[in-house]
From TrEMBL:
Belongs to the Rieske iron-sulfur protein family. CDD domains: Rieske. Residues 277-347 form the Rieske domain. Its main location: membrane. The chain crosses the membrane at residues 71-92, 104-125, 177-196. It is found in: Cell membrane. Residues 8-23 have a biased composition (Low complexity). This is Cytochrome bc1 complex Rieske iron-sulfur subunit. Pfam families: QcrA_N, Rieske. Keywords: 2Fe-2S, Cell membrane, Disulfide bond, Electron transport, Iron, Iron-sulfur, Membrane, Metal-binding, Oxidoreductase, Respiratory chain, Transmembrane, Transmembrane helix, Transport. Residues 1-62 are annotated as: Disordered. It is a multi-pass membrane protein. It comes from Subtercola frigoramans.
């Protein structure tokens, strides 16, 4: 397509014999002609490698020794981190049912491993950037695409193999082979399934928790009971049943009974028939266990009244009985019916009326 500039001059295609050095001139002409791109087949000479810029450690032996000390110091810090991790593992053993010991073990073991990995990583990078050989080079690579002859020959080999084996025309053999390959992994699937709970109805494990009528709601992890007056508008608390900390299997019980307690404006709540008495003056309690894969739902957004699961971003609407509004979860969080006792403490009216936890369990 022809293009005329304001002066009426016509932009001509470059001649095949033009020198490479005139490409810049043509580019400038293109800018003056409204920015029309100019396509040229001219080649440019190899500019070669840029001038080598020596590092400060190449020029100053004192700087090189300083860099060397920094590198081996980082490596020794890595050794210290590994030793610290081993010492922390033995100094803070994980005792059955003791969440405090588990926290200490996790924190100090993680710090030691972090120091060990960071020391190695930073030391290796600093070594490479300051002390290893610093010379530019050219890596000549061959084309990765096969030649037309090679590609044609590959097609011929596949065609010959199909004809010689009869895979394409012996349908019974082909289909039986496909069936055998599909069925082959099934025994492994069955064996792995045997590692799971052996119950006709796995949901029965999640149908009951420690919650019962009259059980006080207590703060996690202190176990102190909480009054309705302590729950202010827009606040949220992590709750466990009264007496859970004294249970020998408290970690297993907590994995089912953990609850999030929130207070919103009662006028904002959309309550289904039969659930009118499940909240107390806008205070609602819902299972903390996500109905997707069981992660702890721990993030409450005060303005939107949304609960967020940090694992896979399932989002639940507190104003609408924690129904799912986003994410992979398919079921609302189970609600714990609550009220207050004569002293003003929040108590449960009953256990959850549906199984808590992930929805992949079969449910009757």
């Amino acid at each position: 397509m022809a293009h005329d500039d304001s002066s009426g001059s016509e932009l001509a295609a470059p001649s095949s014999g033009a020198a490479a050095g005139t490409a810049v001139e043509r580019a400038g002409t293109a800018e003056s002609n409204g920015g029309l791109a100019v396509i040229t087949t001219d080649t440019f000479p190899d500019p070669g490698m840029p001038p080598h810029r020596p590092r400060v450690t190449d020029l100053d032996p004192k700087k090189a020794r300083t860099a060397q000390r920094a590198v081996y110091t980082l490596f020794y810090l890595s050794v210290a981190g590994s030793v610290f991790a081993l010492a922390a593992y033995m100094a803070f053993p994980i005792e059955d049912g003791d969440p405090g010991a588990l926290r200490l073990n996790t924190v100090f073991l993680g710090l030691g491993i972090t120091l060990a990995l960071m020391g190695i990583g930073l030391g290796a990078v600093h070594w490479a950037k300051t002390l290893m050989a610093d010379h530019e080079g050219i890596d000549v690579r061959h084309p990765v695409r096969g030649t037309p002859e090679t590609r044609t020959r590959a097609v011929e080999i596949f065609d010959d193999a199909n004809k010689e084996s009869g895979f394409g025309r012996r349908t019974l053999i082909r289909n039986s082979l496909i069936g055998a390959l599909v069925a082959f992994p099934l025994p492994a699937v069955i064996l792995f399934r045997g590692l799971g709970p052996q119950f006709d109805n796995p949901a029965s494990l999640l149908e009951t928790t420690m919650w019962k009528a009259g059980a006080r709601l207590t703060l996690d992890p202190s176990g102190l009971p909480i009054k309705a007056s302590d729950v202010t508008l827009g606040s949220a608390f992590h709750i466990i049943p009264e007496g859970l900390n004294e249970m020998p299997d408290r970690l297993e019980q907590k994995a089912k009974a953990a609850v999030l307690l929130m207070r919103v404006n009662p006028a904002d709540l959309n309550v289904s028939p039969g659930r009118e008495t499940w909240n107390y003056d806008g205070i609602v309690a819902y299972s903390k266990i996500c109905t997707h894969v069981g992660c702890p739902v721990a993030l409450f957004e005060q303005q939107t009244h949304h609960l967020l699961c940090p694992c896979h971003q399932s989002t639940f609407d507190v104003n609408n009985e924690c129904k799912v509004i986003f994410g992979p979860a398919k079921r609302a969080l189970p609600q714990l019916p609550i009220t207050v006792d004569g002293e003003g403490y929040l108590i449960a009216q009953s256990d959850f009326l549906e199984p808590v936890g992930p929805s992949f369990w079969e449910r009757s």
